[in-house]
Amino acid sequence: MPFEIMSNQIIFLGSGGSVIGSIEVVCGPMFSGKTEELIRRVRRAQIARQKIQIFKPSIDNRYHESDVVSHNSLSIEAIPVKTAIEILYRVFDSTRVVAIDEVQFFDSMILKVVAKLAKRGIRVICAGLDQDYKGMPFGPMAELLAIADSVDKVQAVCTLCGAQATKTCRISKELTDQVIVGEADIYEARCRSHFDYYDEEEDFFQHAFPFLERWQQDKISRMNQNP
Ligand SMILES: [Zn+2]
């Protein structure tokens, strides 16, 4: 399939040179500039006079009800939606670009929604957290990254050592729900070595123990067979 790469965005072209849809994902930890990158791509599409619609989940009302606002106060108007399927019904036939911010908060239906939009010939740009505060894939993100045509992982700066941060650390350990919308009062960006996943060890041994036990038994039975 022919395609053109224009400043880290891939535009897929059909046989007649017509633009066909695509799915782009910008992901990373908090404070990594995901939303700034989303806004930058939206602004470029606006300059190119393409019809754009921007959506965000209505769960995320940290700054403004209908704006996508980044940490450095860049903002752009967005339509808050309660479910992923709502996006499908709100996109106009004339829309060429759909941007979705905080995509990790949507249900798994978002995978079908973005695929359907891309099939309609729409360029879909998604931004979101790839991992939760435990370092595990956030909501539909693992599958979204798999079905995307292009993925850009952006990094923040570790608050402890200044290295590139790929993880979001929840400072308060009492809060254990996956979704707690907050800011620098609750979260910090951390590098891998300063990412304190408090029950990692426990979790590892819980999963590894049955395998270790079986391996030990196999070893004993082999020794008994070949004394
Ligand atoms: Zn660090």
Which keywords apply here?
227 residues; alpha/beta; Rossmann fold; 29% helix; disordered N terminus; binds zinc ion
Structural description of this entry:
By secondary structure, the chain is an alpha/beta fold. 29% of the residues lie in helices and 26% in strands. It has five helices and 15 strands. It has helices at residues 34-47, 84-90, 109-119, 141-147, 200-225, and strands at residues 3-6, 9-13, 19-20, 22-28, 52-57, 67-69, 75-77, 79-81, 97-100, 123-129, 150-153, 156-157, 164-165, 167-170, 187-190. It has a six-stranded parallel beta sheet, sandwiched between helices. It has a three-stranded antiparallel beta sheet with strand order 1-2-3, with no helix packed on it. The termini are far apart. The model is unreliable at 1-9 (pLDDT under 50).
Mean pLDDT across residues: 84
Distance between the termini: 61 Å
In this structure, how is the largest beta sheet organized? Answer: 6 strands, parallel
List the uncertain runs: 1-9
Small-molecule binders here are: zinc ion
**Total beta-strand segments:** 15
Write the element-wise H/E pattern from the N-terminal end onward.
EEEEHEEEEHEHEHEEEEEH
Fraction of residues in H or I helices = 25-40%
Q: In CATH, what is the class of the domain at 3-155?
A: Alpha Beta
For CATH, the homologous superfamily of the domain at 3-155 is named as P-loop containing nucleotide triphosphate hydrolases
Q: What share of the residues does DSSP label as strand, in percent?
A: 25-35%
Looking at the structure, the CATH topology of the domain at 3-155 is: Rossmann fold
Structural class: alpha/beta
Name given to the CATH architecture of the domain at 3-155 = 3-Layer(aba) Sandwich
Major beta sheet, strand line-up: 8-5-9-10-4-11
Query: Tally the helices: what do you get?
Result: 5
Q: Name the overall outline.
A: globular
Alpha-carbon Rg, integer: 21 Å
